Amino acid sequence: MITIFTPTYNRAYILQKLYDSLCRQTSQDFEWILVDDGSSDNTEALAKQWLEEQKINMSYIRQKNAGKPIAHNRGVKEAKGDLFVCVDSDDFLVESAVAEIQSVWRRENNLQRTGILAFRAYSDGRELTRIDNSSIVESSLRDAYKKYGLHGDTMLIFKTDVIKRFHFVLAEGEKFIPETYLYNQIDEVGPLYIYRKALYICDYQEDGLTANVARNLYNNYKSYVIYMNSRLRGNESLADKFKDTIRYEAIMIAHKENKVIRRAVYPWMAVLGWLPAYIWAMKRYGKFMN
To answer: CATH homologous superfamily of domain 2-203?
Structure first.
């Protein structure tokens, strides 16, 4: 069985599209966990209606507004499937998605692989995901982007017993941290099998996280520093460490934090990167600064 997890916040106006796509799946061997992050619209009423219909195996969980990462942690905790995939509330799946995932995994599963990397497309048929390397079969997510020419967002399907070993961490009072905080840790476990077909359809909304990245980073900067420091302490090249040091400095400068260089993972890099970090802070976060 596959666990399909969806975090949602005030998306009642568009959730029906995802629900309908799940009802149309050619394989119904899945559970849908819908975690409502404290919506103030009619999401709860809609979810209760779907539960009464009993068309699919569905669970509805409502939590106090805490952000997508905490909703994700809850979804992972509740997951009962062998595989786990997050499908956002403004997206949907092709009708054969569950069946194809099951078929691919029966064929390609092994002890080393952590799951499947599948492609996404826009609702008008345009490709969203592509990879330049035509022969690569498996890769970590990071190497897929850095070494093999992966472009665009992907559909990530993880072994549930792998993803249950990790969770998002947030600074107190904050609600956002980049999803790669989790994916970078899973990368250390093993590679993903690359399935070069779009199973996931999306159109980014104006109220979505993707459309508001800089603002979310600025408003949740302590969690962003947690993320940057985890990257800096990980398996990165010297050039990547320098770039991430600049990113760390920029968000700290934007918030007028003290002892930025002393608190850096690599203080000597922070000294060298101070000027570009200041320029980046003004360019990326200047409009949010008081």
So the answer is: Spore Coat Polysaccharide Biosynthesis Protein SpsA; Chain A (3.90.550.10)
Burial 123-162 (b: 16+ CB within 10 A, else e): eeeeebbebeeeebebbbbbebbeeeebeebbbbbbbbeb
CA distance 2 to 30: 5
CA distance 149 to 212: 25
Per domain, the residue ranges of the chain are 2-203, 212-288
Looking at the DSSP bridge assignments, the partners of residue 180 are none
Name the percent of the chain lying above pLDDT 90: 94
Q: What are phi and psi of 64, to 5 degrees?
A: -65, 140
- Predicted TM-score (pTM) above 0.90: yes
Q: Quote the percentage of the chain above a pLDDT of 70.
A: 98
